[in-house]
Amino acid sequence: QLHLVESGGGLVQPGGSLRLSCTNSGFPLDFYDIGWFRQAPGKEREGVSCISKNGVSTNYADSVKGRFTISRDNAKNTVYLQMDSLRPEDTAVYYCASRSRPEPGCPSSRYEYDWWGQGTQVTVSS
Q1: How far apart are CA 88 and CA 91, in angstroms?
Q2: Please, are residues 10 and 20 in contact by the beta-carbon 8 Å criterion?
Q3: Of 4, 6, 3, which Cα lies nearest the Cα of 21?
Q4: Cα–Cα distances in Å, from 16 out to 13, 34, 60, 71, 125?
Q5: What is the DSSP string of 35-87?
Q6: Residues pairing with 13 in the sheet
Q7: Which residue among 51, 80, 107, 124 is buried most deeply as judged by most CB within 10 Å?
Q8: How far apart are CA 55 and CA 40, in angstroms?
Q9: pLDDT band at 89 (very low <50, low <70, confident <90, very high)
Q10: Which pLDDT tens digit goes with each residue over 27-86?
Q11: Do residues 86 and 48 touch, judged by C-beta distance below 8 A?
């Protein structure tokens, strides 16, 4: 059983940066594809980025391409989401989620993921 924990959220000014981390206290994360999602007040949870368990495949939502970078360090059992050039519309609770399938993959749909963290708040405001 996984216990995913997100960290690194906070308050940042527009144009600033944050790095989110997703760690697990259970099985090693290198068995799992990992996705980052976010949910703003009154909106549905949307996919932000994902990375396959072997790190070969990544994907980004159009709204964050060129600004966000996903990476993983399996030795540290951590997946990162580097967020640069942040905008007020990036304000949301950010969640990491994992899935385990025989073949590595990077789906954007939240319904493809099995385990979820509790989320970390990101607020972009001046």
Answers
A1: 6
A2: no
A3: 6
A4: 5, 24, 19, 19, 10
A5: EEEEE-TTS--EEEEEE-TTS--EEE-TTTTTTEEEEEEGGGTEEEEEE-S--
A6: none
A7: 51
A8: 28
A9: very high
A10: 888 899 999 999 999 999 999 999 999 999 999 999 999 999 999 998 899 999 999 999
A11: no
